[in-house]
């Protein structure tokens, strides 16, 4: 009789023990597969959201600065050889090899303006790109067109008397004070009471006002890029270009290098804070997944080890008979290892199926947006291989212990 047949027949006789090992491995491998699937999907989702949430690359004109001091007295530096950015530089950025990874390319022109005796910063933008770049914007009114209309920051609108607060319902119920403070800026109600302001002797229509952002956007006046180029008498010029790059699968340094090669007259910099935040978030998720997976696999290995050790004790009589009829030590080891490997393969396969199903079912509860978890055949092969490895490694010592049993001593149990 073949050794494999002996192993299979033994599993048939001990169905409850075999089922227990299969379930234990299925739970262990299933937990690891579910964690891996969820973590991978969440990492991709978080990476994509962080990449899309604001700029992570800034392009500014390259210039040389000379620091001056005389007799220990510092004088403000002098910038020279300033090379301006142009409209056509936007198209050069969009032509890099990694152009498919550029979510948004938002050009800007900055200029100081005086409105009703107050100084403000006028920003010329492409509203289509700017609203994609700054998804947190909430606008009362409408987004201006490129040719007409202004978008005022909340602080600017308040200073110019463009907006007026609207009394809120005194009976509005607030569940938590913390939540109330957190959403105070977003929920502040106001209405527009003016629809025009004068800049450089020209009357401009106010299309909308930003709700408070708590940042520099509150202090800006936004207008179409071409309009600002005309007002500042800088046709075709840009002050900077902000880029949102999708870099969850590639080093952002590669995109920076490619843009730099296209724009040698510009200084291209990655916003390290955004890049570092994404890297830290992904690293925490990865570390959590690895630790939990290792703990689960260790517990599964111990369960298999303990079960096989108790099985060896129960099968002392059987092992003694096999040794008495001529089976060698290596035959005993092969039988026990084959049993463990067979159960592990079955447990690993069922674990992959259970883990993938659990990941698909639980994914909506862990993500605000829709994430897709699809069956991964490479993960299936890895699951089966890991399960087989755990089963074989855990069975080696019990198998060796069984092979070392004295046949004469074992036969006394008959």
Textual characterization of the structure:
The protein has 414 residues and is of the alpha+beta class. The chain has 2 domains: 3-50 and 280-411, no CATH class; 56-67 and 86-270, no CATH class. 53% of the residues lie in helices and 21% in strands. The chain has helices spanning 3-13, 15-52, 88-93, 127-133, 154-159, 177-182, 184-187, 225-231, 252-262, 272-314, 316-324, 329-366, 377-403, 407-411; strands at residues 57-61, 64-70, 73-80, 85-86, 102-115, 118-125, 139-141, 150-152, 163-165, 190-192, 196-199, 202-210, 220-224, 237-238, 240-245, 266-270. α2 runs antiparallel to α10, α10 runs parallel beside α13 (377-403) and α12 runs antiparallel to α13. The longest helix is centred in the C-terminal third of the chain and has 43 residues, at 272-314. It starts with a helix and ends with a helix. The model is unreliable at 70-80 and 169-187 (pLDDT under 50).
Number of beta strands: 16
Mean pLDDT, to the nearest integer, reads 80
Q: How many domains is the backbone divided into? A: 2
Shape: elongated
Structural class of the secondary elements?
alpha+beta
Structure at a glance:
The protein folds into 2 domains: 3-50 and 280-411, no CATH class; 56-67 and 86-270, no CATH class. It is 53% helix and 21% strand. The protein has helices at residues 3-13, 15-52, 88-93, 127-133, 154-159, 177-182, 184-187, 225-231, 252-262, 272-314, 316-324, 329-366, 377-403, 407-411, and strands at 57-61, 64-70, 73-80, 85-86, 102-115, 118-125, 139-141, 150-152, 163-165, 190-192, 196-199, 202-210, 220-224, 237-238, 240-245, 266-270.
